[in-house]
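User: quick one, fold this
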Amino acid sequence: MMRYIVVWPTAAIMTMMLVMLIAIHLLSDEAVDYEIKQDLRQKTDAAYFKVSIENGELVIAEDFEYESENVCFVIVKRDGKVVEGRYPEGVESELGNYRVRNNRSFVVNSDEKYYVRDLRIGKYRDKGLFIRGILKVSDAQSFYRRIEIISYFSMAAFFAVILLYEIFFAKKISRELKDMCKTAESIGTSLDMSQRMKSASHFYETEILRQANNRMLDRVEQTFQIQEQFTSDVAHELRTPVATLLAQCQYAIEKVHDKEEFDEVLEVVYRQSEKINTIIMQLLKFSRLDQDRIEIRNEEVDLALICQTICEEWQDKARDKVSIQMHLKEAVTMGDIGLISIIIQNLISNAVKFSHPKGIIEVFTGEDEQQVFVTVRDYGVGITPENTELVFRRFYQCDESRSAEGFGLGLPLSKKIAEKCGGRITLESEPDKGSTFTLYLPRK
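Assistant:
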């Protein structure tokens, strides 16, 4: 862990520091040389305005200084002979041999290196007079070298602080990541999905990582719970018909002696087998939808026509128990006719199942600019607010006694199919006032 958090950033910082130091060293000589020349030029130009020739005589201002920091000034003739001032000690013999070069800088190399700049003042006794600025390079360089050394140490100190800062916080981050890894390993070993990663970190990144992992664990725990509940519900739903089958078979073996009794037993066995088959087929549909193993056809679907057909079928089945009223307007979409028919079938059968005797069921179809809809409204027992979301859970039944027909798979299957077709199902319900289910699908 520390190899990635500390070593690689540290190596990068050290490499950057080395590159910068090399660059500074390579560029510093040129920079220092340039600054020295600029310093000589500026001071010589400033001194130039403090001397003049008036009526052929040299006039020097009272505040004129023959030495300004590292620069010395002399007044010379064109041949280099000194009129006023004096050369720095030890260089008169060298500089005296150099003729004046008006408005130019030049270098004198002796035992020491000097930069020299000459500026013409005017005519003095019919001859040209010049101010000459002399700068000993080694004296000037010492100042800039001190600055350079200070820069090196400042940069080293800066990178050292950054490095220490990085190591300190990298260790804290690493400690928190190790704690998260321990929690993950503990969950993997014990399969205790209730554990969560804890952190008192003030680091945004590790906090985001912790929250993301905990959200993932929440979903995994929920999936485990749903799976356990699903297994329990399947066992519960299949236990009754299977027990009935076994009881009828045992009864037939031991006590049935004529064809009439045998036919009665066979009819019970058939009904229970049909119930088991229905559960299995619906579970298979769920599984195929979850795994995207059902090919969803894209064909034109007339919702009004489908609703009319299904409503007429259920009216025949229900006879006078309920009255199905149709309010069908044009509603055409693209999708799988078979799957959409399953949704509408389940919504209408659900309304019939929970309607009061002689109750009314209303079925509406229509469309707007973006979607089409099928609404099934009943005025039956209704659903309590706490159950409005639960009815779309597999095997959930509002009637805890499970005395009502069905297995609690119709609405969850309908919702799953609607989502696969790019739609959704909404529910509005009040206890003892009825329920309204609406299927929305994209418009053609």
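User: anything notable?
Assistant: The CA atoms of residues 361 and 378 lie 5 Å apart.
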